[in-house]
Structures are given as C-alpha cells and as structure tokens.
Amino acid sequence: MPAYSHSQLSTYQTCPYQYRLHYIQKIKMDTEGIEAFMGSRVHDALEKLYRDLKMTKLNTLEELLAFYHQCWEKNWSESVQIIRKEYHAEDYRRLGEKCITDYYKRYYPFDQGRTLGLEETIYFPLEEEKGYWIRGVIDRLALSDHSILEIHDYKTSSRLPTQGDVQSDRQLAFYQMGVEGKWKDIQEIKLIWHYLAFDVEVQSLRTPEELQRLRQETMELIKKIESDRDFSPQESPLCSWCDYQSLCPKRRHRIVAESLPPNEYLQEEGVNLVNRYVELKEKKGILIGEIDAELARVEEALFAYAQREELEAIYGSDHVAKIKTEMKEKYPLKGDPNRKALDEFIKNAGKWMEVSDLNPWMLARILERGGWPPTLAKKVKEFSTVEKNRSIALSKLKERD
Prior knowledge:
The chain is α/β, with parallel strands linked by helices.
C-alpha cells in the first residue's frame, strides 16, 4: 500500500523530475549537501541528550559537543558537497556546535515535559478506502501538564519563517493527525518548531477544520502525482542543492561543462554553439538598433516633407508612402490616477460589460461608432486626452502599361 511523506510530497511540488528519479526510479546518489549533513549531526546530538535523560543521565554540554564532533568525524566523507563556496566545512561544523550550545543553555535542565518518544514513526491513512497513507518520523514527542501533547521538530535552516509560514506548514500537522487518539486525557496538541540557528521556538495549534482542509488538499496532490505521466523538470533556486543535477536535462550540460579543464571547456561543442549564438544575437541587436534609429529619422523627414508640401502620398521608384495624420482620443490606462474614476462612472452607467472590463481601445471604438447616447458619450470623453497619431502605410506601385 503506497505511503507518502511530507518530504516526498514537497519534492514533487519543487520538481516532478527529481521526484521521479528519487521515488519512482529509486536512483540513489552518493552525494549529500553539507547543510543536510550538519543537520543530521545536530539531530544525532539532541536525540542522545533526550535518550540519555530517559535513563536519568544528564549529559553536560561538553559531553554533548564531544559526541557531536565524534559523529561528524565518523560520518564525514568526500561525498559531502559544499555549494556555497565562500564557506568551508568548519564553518558549518561551528554552526552546528552553536545550535546545540544555544539549545542546551535555553532548555537546561530539560524538565519542561516528559519525553514519550524519540524518532517516533507515524503511519496513518488520509483516506483508507483509497489507499492514501502518510508516514513520517517525529523528532521528539513529549507530554506536559499531564494533558498537553507536544510535537517537537528541530530545524537547522538558515531561514526563519514567518508565523504565517508556520501556520500553513504541512509536516507537523501530519504528525498531529498521526498521534491523535493514541493517548487518553489529551486536551491539546502543540506543534513546536525549534529554529536552532536563530535560537527561536515557534508554536502552532491546528483546528479540526484546518486538519480536514489539509487532508483534502493532500489527497488532491496525491491524485495529481499519481496521474502525472511526464514528471517534467522544474527549475528553482533549489536546483544548485539537488543531488540529481548530473541526470537532469536542464542542468546536466552545465555540470559536465564545468567539470572540464579550462582549455577543454572552451572547445566543448555545446559551449561553442551557445557562445556563437549569443555573439550573433548581440550583433543582430546592434544592427536592428542602428536600422531602427535610421528608420525613425527617415520617417520624421517624410512627415516633415508631407506637411511642408501639403501631401498625403509621396511616391518613390516602386512604392508609394501614404501619410495619415489623425487626432485620437486616449483613455486612462491602469495606474493612471483618473482610471478609478472612469471605472466607477462606466459601472454606474450600466455599460461595464460592453467595454470588456474597461478596455480603453474598446471604449474608444464604441464611442467612435456612436453606440452610446450622446450625453453619456460626452461625459465619458471628459476622461480622455487627445493626441496626434501619425502613420505611414507603404504599398507597391502597379506597373504602368
């Protein structure tokens, strides 16, 4: 029976192609981002802290940090990637140490509640009849005041979300669905995020209505995933952290090209083709700009010549240029201070639908055709400005007999 996790659903929303490679084709990559590596080591340390507490052993901060560094050394490998080249492994290592230190000092002696579970697995149906199940792992489950169940989650993210972001977060709401009804006399379930890099705790409560809405939205998302036949790649700022870049049609060439030595990089066929294409596009832009400038000068000269000689048609060797000058009424566009007043006037006159949500060109055309009563047309025209519109129409001369 298929089961979905929060991270699985988020992967699809970020990039369906990454979802296909990871969850359908089950391609395992040897690389891991330094951010995820550091986060795992911090989780290891906090799990040890509370697991030992359940055995009545309280680690000192020094003992906990020693365990953290031991885990770092034990798990470190060359496969850990650092995308932000301005930072080094030791920078992330110190950040992880700071996260643990701040947390330890904030909650010592860790008597805020009784830990019920660590790395607690949940598995529950969204809609059992359709086989939609959710799975996940809770960092820490605790009981406080004998009647409040707390779901704790540790984040080492470098971004602190707003309260609105937290309130719409799906992950811990899933966890709430998974633990509801498992303990007696529970009056409230608190969702608690620890943003360790900021030493900030954020809490949220979810109503039954909010959970039901999430249940429905999640089922719709799962239906979309299961009906997807393309799983097209979707670029985003997160692409640089994706482990599947070497397999992605939108990123693969970049990875291959950047891995080449400088002398080979400039000879690579794709690099050469793009560079040549850019060169030609830039040349074309320059030529078009020069031609447009010259064309504008000739047009202005034609208008001046036609006005001076009082002509409406000027003949060349094979073409005739017909000069047209007319005064056009122009109505305010969106953003113009007068637009709101015009909107209200048209609506009050009962003519809103006739101008396609107040399309200024449609409005001008209707008034030109005399489709509205003269008194109304006169009032509307007060919103307009008059500008001179000049145009040149070229046509080929017919051969003389």
